[in-house]
Design a protein that fits this description.
By secondary structure, the chain is of the alpha/beta class. It has helices at about 10-25, 30-40, 45-50, 60-70, 75-80, 105-115, 130-135, 150-160, 205, 210-215, 225-235, 250-260; strands at about 85, 90, 115-125, 140-145, 170, 185-190, 235-245, 265-270, 275-280. Strands 5-4-3-6-7-9-8 form a seven-stranded mixed beta sheet, sandwiched between helices. A two-stranded antiparallel ribbon has the order 1-2. Strand 8 (about 265-270) and strand 9 form a beta hairpin. The radius of gyration is 21 Å and the shape is elongated. The mean pLDDT is about 95.
Length: about 280
Amino acid sequence: MTTTTKLWRIIDLINWGADHFTTKGMDNARREMEWFLCDILKCERIDLYVRFEEVMDEGELEIFRTMVKRRIAGEPFQHIIGKTPFYGRDFIVNQKVLIPRPETEILIERMKTNGNVNSLLDIGTGTGCIAITTGLENLVENIFATDISQSALEIATENMKLHNLENIQFARHDFLSQNFKTKFDVVVSNPPYIAVNEMNSLQAEVRDYDPPSALTDNGDGLSFYRRFAEQFENLLTSDGYLLLEFGGNAQKGAVESIFQNVGLNTEFFKDLQNDWRVIEVRR
């Protein structure tokens, strides 16, 4: 990209960038360009197309060039702009937390369908996106969220402040080895479900940038589901339920067996790609 003589309008950069990213094999190329430009210009996506004839200045172009280079090198665009959308809102992200995925929004949809509750526990909260969204959507009165990573809890706390919430209690906790003294109406989690021997086959931008502790249990990918099955009675109130994300079609049978083997009832839900993605567990 040469910028010395040519005047670059917003629309020129969108078109150039979308083509450039597409040739590098990136999905969602045009959308990522729009995100970068929105971040640089501090505007909404619709504004780009209202202002598309506007010429970018040299300072803005320099920031843009740096962003493009980082993205081509494999860094997730969410880390480059320092945020990602989840359920229509932006959340702060960095390499200390798992980047929220659209599939995880199914957990929020299920809670909406099931109706409001008094208490919720979010295990492995990461950015805090699930816990915070349940608060913003007025689905829960009392929200508790835990993570094994203190760095993740700091990001989650930042996100809570960003969204002007005060009703979430965060705590550091190792779910696989520590118990809870309280029962909850809903326990929700997107736990580490990738088997350790599958880590090398992940996309580079996931493997190299998401924290390993948020991806794998360092075992067969099922440790957290076994623990949830074992702790079900200690975790949930009499009408309470578990809502868990898991690793898609290939993992469905194993996850189902874990809960059915201890006499619990399961129901499954698909994501937008038509893969099985969420399990709801009840007595």
